[in-house]
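sorry for the late reply, my laptop died twice this morning and i had to redo everyting from scratch. anyway the thing you sent over, i finally got around to it. pasting the sequence first so we're on the same page, its 134 residues, then the predicted structure underneath. double check i copied it right bc i was rushing
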Amino acid sequence: MPHRKLARMETCRKVVTMRKALGEALGYRHCANPIWDMLLELYIAEREQRIVYLWSLCSFANVPFSTACRKVTEMEEIGLVRRNATHRDRRGVEVTLTVKGEGLIVSLLDRLTEISNGGPVPRTGISVRVNYAN
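ok and here's the structure:
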């Protein structure tokens, strides 16, 4: 099991690096995927035991702050993340993955790890989906 966790983290870091390379080459506005970027950041932060605040999470998404905040609200509405006001500073809003969000990322990273290790690549895409009509 520890090997699987390490493989997920390695895959996650590679995907983040690829997203940055793509954003730098094409311009982030041409390849924006703020939900994916924010979920990856939350996954890494939780493993590193870092607290992620709404402001920093939104800046990580490489989209306007208002767009990123709307995406956080969407993720919260479908149960992928949770917002918590901090006790020390009412201005700080901590964002964490929920069990559902964690499960989604783990499934995706396992699949991406399998693909990068030469596993089968389905022609119709990845079968992990989030139902936005909850």
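The chain has a mean pLDDT of 86.
thats about all i looked at so far, will dig more tmrw
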